[in-house]
Design goal:
This protein is of the alpha/beta class and 144 residues long. The protein is built from three helices and eight strands, in the order E-H-E-E-H-E-H-E-E-E-E.
Length: 144
């Protein structure tokens, strides 16, 4: 399960609206609770560095990701997930999303943005033991 504050949930959706018709992307920081729940305590917006097809692909610059991870650790937070938007497309993962997901045990949040307005937001956990058997499994989201 993924727990988000209502403020962070709204921020993810607003980010998707602001970057429409391109995909937005960012990082979820927080901690993993004893029961395996990922509790988000902050989010970090990232720039989408894809220039070939930013309307249906995203990429986070590795240097930006390292900086976010370092700053989060300084605050006692770990990377617990990532988010991106799907402009005019369902909030379901694509084969590209699965192929480019590599952080096992993390949440992957997808925000559907229809005609510039955030609609459905879903989350998926990357499960498996390695790249050969990885899967994105539906994950419950608790907003509070």
């Amino acid at each position: 399960m993924l727990k988000l504050t209502s403020k962070d949930y709204a921020a993810l959706r607003r980010h998707g609206e602001e970057t429409y018709p391109h995909e937005c992307c960012g990082v979820l920081l927080g901690s993993v609770e004893d029961d395996g729940t990922r509790a988000v305590t902050s989010t970090a917006r990232c720039g989408n560095t894809r220039t070939d097809s930013p309307q249906n692909r995203y990429n986070i610059d590795p240097r930006e990701l390292v900086r976010i991870q370092r700053e989060g650790r300084d605050r006692g937070e770990d990377i617990v997930g990532f988010y991106h938007s799907h402009p005019d497309h369902p909030a379901r993962w694509s084969q590209t999303d699965l192929a480019e997901a590599h952080w096992f045990g993390c949440s992957y949040v997808i925000i559907s943005v229809e005609k510039g307005k955030a609609s459905i937001t879903n989350s998926f956990e990357l499960v498996g033991s390695d790249e050969t058997d990885k899967q994105l499994a539906d994950e419950k989201v608790e907003v509070g």
